[in-house]
Amino acid sequence: MTEVISKIREIKLFIDGEYVSSSVNKTFAVYNPATQEEIARVHEATEADVDRACQAARRAFEAGPWRTMTVKERCVKIRRMAEIILERKEELARLEAMDVGKPFHVAYDFEIPRAAHNLRFFADFMEQLGSETYPMDEEFLNYTRYEPVGVAALITPWNLPFMLTTWKLGPCLATGNTAVIKPAEPTPLTVSLLGEIAKEAGIPDGVVNIVQGFGPNSTGEFMTTHPEVDLISFTGETSTGKAIMKNGANTLKRVSFELGGKAANIVFEDANLDKAIPTSIRAAFLNSGQVCLAGSRILVQRSILKEFVDRFKDAASKLKVGDPQDTSTSMGPLVSEQHYNKVTSYLQIGKSENATLVYGGKRPELPEYLKDGYYLEPTIFVQEDPKARLCQEEIFGPIVTIIPFDTEDEALDIANDTQYGLNAVVWTDNLQRAHRVSHRVRAGTIWVNCWFIRDLRAPFGGFKKSGIGREGGHHSLEFFTEAKNICLALK
Ligand code: NAD
């Protein structure tokens, strides 16, 4: 596998079944965040390239055979994609670790298998799908067909590139749509391979297209304004969602948005801390805290504050920060210099707002070859003021803020007092409280005494500024389909 990670790759666009260069041969560099070494030159899609990709997707949609083949035939090919992903699991995990800076074992054990599962799950789900019928006495019968919408733009962020792209591609393809995919500019490596994986699986040319580039005034904007794009499935920042919505408005595109978060992880005094502490550590520092679902605000009942802080600090100090390719590493670097600068600016913001730094806040000591990596220690603040920026803004890094509270009502007020509403975590051994609090927190997913457990049939998405719409199970399939009612006279 060393050859996988040692060469500088050339990443081309995948349009109409072929890897092609940018029409003006414009490229940009991608770096390994652990070392700052250049790992790829990426062809940036111009407006003309995006147009070619969208036209190819349109032709493939209109002409068939993708849309017109049986669901069973389509799903055989989607499942084959999943098999190929598992056959290439180590290569994909190595590339993801090198590109994002996440520990190899996280990609190998969780994200790449989950990517395969995303495709398999939606193929299986689609095959099982029924539809509604509404008989009107003996005279008329209504039945519903779910038909593909057309060309979908799938735009994804850099924190879970391969996993999140397949999470959109699975339902998009299973329902018979065609796709133009854009991965985030710092992390294009694994998603670019979906072209050859789709081709090998027998997906017809033009059904899956992949363009590379940036957002505003670049590839992303060209996609979201393109007249041939019917729908946009986007995961990323809330501010980007707003821009995409504006850009898609002229051509009235359907949108599904999975946006930012600032989850409350609420620890009541009756919680089982032997479970709450290790899970809260994962929720705070998995993928260096670059997870939309991160439990980045830990609300702790004051009666257990000291014990919680001591034990949480101790557990954080045992995390091994280091080389993502090393299987013993639990936390890698941040994804890029720009993001490192944003995340570390919160160290100063915390100090200026009188938060107490209880752990971390520095560059960890690392071997010489990692000296240029974008590393930050797991960092813990205690902040009494829930209105402080540390408690309100999505930091998206290994900085977690502990906020003390006294009563359940106060915890709920703090939990609900942000613009976000993606998810929350509740730790309590009191069943009534678990339900009561879960019902009153305004967020799309509530985990009680656990975190990041996902059943792909369940709805996933955000309240408030954390998103529009839901993904998962029939929610994804509804987004990617038009419901058509057919009314039949029986007499
Ligand atoms: P981002 O919004 O900066 O970028 C996401 C994607 O959008 C990239 O591919 C980018 O190139 C593209 N883009 C940017 N501006 C665009 C524009 N004007 N038009 C079209 N495309 C544009 O997000 P990011 O920094 O890559 O990812 C981090 C964010 O993603 C965090 O806010 C995180 O919470 C969120 N996220 C949410 C979920 C979820 O399920 N809710 C999951 C993962 C990440």
Overall average residue pLDDT = 97
Q: Report the sheet with the most strands, covering strand number, pairing sense and barrel closure.
A: 7 strands, mixed
Small molecules held by this entry: nicotinamide-adenine-dinucleotide
The radius of gyration computed from the alpha-carbon positions, rounded to a whole number of angstroms, is 23 Å
Question: What is the count of DSSP helices, taking H or I runs of 4+ residues?
Answer: 17
End-to-end separation in angstroms reads: 68 Å
- CATH topology tier name of the largest domain: Aldehyde Dehydrogenase, Chain A, domain 1
**How many strands?**
23
CATH top level assignment of the largest domain: Alpha Beta
CATH arch. level architecture of the largest domain? 3-Layer(aba) Sandwich
In spatial order, strands of the major sheet run 15-16-17-14-13-19-20
Helical/strand content category: alpha/beta
CATH superfamily of the largest domain: Aldehyde Dehydrogenase, Chain A, domain 1
Stretches with pLDDT under 50, minimum 5 residues = none
Q: What shape does the CA trace take?
A: globular
Helix content: 25-40%
- Count of discrete domains: 2
Q: Beta-strand percentage?
A: 15-25%
